[in-house]
Amino acid sequence: MPYVDAVVTGAGGFIGGYLTRALLGEGKTVRAVDRKPLDEWCQIHPEAENLVLDVSLREACAETVRGGAAEVYHLAADMGGMGFIENNKSACMLSVLSSTHMLIAARDANVGRYFYSSSACVYAAGKQAETAAPPLREEDAYPAAPEDGYGWEKLFSERMGRHFREDSGLATRAARYHNVYGPHGTYEGGREKAPAAACRKIATAVLTGEREIDIWGDGEQTRSFTYIDDCVTGTLKLTRSDVLDPLNIGSDHLVSINELFALIEDIAGTRLAHRHVPGALGVRGRNSDNTRIVKELGWAPSTPLREGLEATYRWVYDQVSASIGARRTVHA
């Protein structure tokens, strides 16, 4: 295979599709890799070299970087929203295979820079037990007590990247993503995250005339949500920086889940009754401390939540509308 400017694993996923687009927009040659069939990718960019490969396999990782690459962005992982990761811990842990094999392949191919997408799930649950818990600083990842399953894999893979850098000189970087959302993301099927799920529920109610929707728990649990454009910008800045330790890439605007639903309802021009039901809740409160990213990169995510949700709701509404229309046609 020829040398490329950038390799993106997990390119068929939500963040991977946007990152591939951004790299192509810079004029880079990009090899986009995912194990899903092409017709299941969130975005397909014909200008990229699009490959269907399973990077949990060592030989596939070697193929991914054969010929060399200036930058590798390793996003491939088995993950989803809280409902998925709490009920699929072993599947999430198995992502350590792709994390390990891609590091080995990148080292052996003398890759220039290697980025690993970690998660705020690496932080100790004890620091996230209250809705108004202090924002999470990067140093709060230790002593280690991350989210069971998914969080442990992410923290271990961060650490492994550090040791590959120390032992072999591979220039590794890692970001801890905080609840990334936007158009073209998963919005149904069990892997969707809170903003997409809320947009789907509200759009469905608007389109069908329903007046009540479900919210998991009491809705007072808090999160910050990071718009996809900010995620991609931060990823590129961090990868090309001299920052060695993992950095938060996340909004520091904290809202409750109830407030998230109310904001989307306002965008949709409706008001609905809320039925609070049991569900996977995760930690009670999680927010990003952006002190270090501002210090190190002179930048932090800045897209207002309403602005990001407006774009996300419009996209999800169109998908739900098309799906409902297709079902009505079948049953007509």
Please give a structural write-up.
With 332 residues, this protein is α/β, with parallel strands linked by helices. The chain contains 11 helices and 13 strands. The strands form 4 sheets. The protein has a 7-stranded parallel beta sheet, sandwiched between helices. 45% of the residues are buried.
How do you describe this structure in short?
The protein is an alpha/beta fold and 332 residues long. It is 40% helix and 17% strand. The longest helix is centred in the last third of the chain and has 27 residues, at 305-331.
Keywords:
single chain, 332 residues, alpha/beta, Rossmann fold, UDP-galactose 4-epimerase, domain 1, 2 domains, two-stranded parallel sheet, 11 helices, globular
